[in-house]
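[job 4471] stage=fold_predict status=RUNNING
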Amino acid sequence: MKEFNLSKIKAAGTTVGDVYVPQTKLLLPFDGTNGATTTSDLSDSNHSFTFSGGVQLTTAQSKFGGSCIYFDGSDDYIYTSDSSSFTVGSSDFTFDFWLKRTSTGTAREGIWGQSNSGGSTLSYFCQFGASGVTDAKLRFGICDTGSTFYYCVSNSAITDTNWRHIAFVKHSGVLTMYIDGTAQTTTASVAFTVKDVSENFNIGRVWHGSYFNGYIDDFRFTNGVARYTSAFTAPTTAHS
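[job 4471] inference complete, writing structure tokens
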């Protein structure tokens, strides 16, 4: 009987479900037992994450799958080493995930990003609040090769503790933020090459001293594809 290499079928993008399997470079469903301190990247990149500061999976909350990851806002985060998977260059890309705050907070909170100290060592990041930005507003930024930052900011503050679907999309040189499928009006013209840095990719913080307090589920990064180009209905099932 002839054997088939299923990994090659998957790499060719012929699996049932997501046609962008080859471009999906990070897929973290955060499924696991309560208190677990490991997680699996289900993308073909198979990144290995280190848990730091007491961060763990929890079954107390989840959007899909019965569990998610919880960050206490103090020193919790997970990270993986730099990889060519995280280099976006001048291509389209999509970051999308579910987020639930434990409180609206009053201080800046880093959610994720590729950086260890900010400034010239940063490719892109996502956070609540910043200089001149209300603390409960989301801000997404990327850096060009000349170390200039470009941002999009949510229209209104997220002042609830509900699950919210968040997506950041670069499409045809424009950066757009979507919350629950609705495009935010602040966009950025980003028709340039995004800086490629050799820093860790962090979730739960952007860099030291800026930590997220809340839950994240079903985190996905797609490199080379703008999955959303107009208003959409937030996913009702976990990413395939």
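[job 4471] summary: Confidence is low (pLDDT under 50) at residues 1-16.
[job 4471] exit 0
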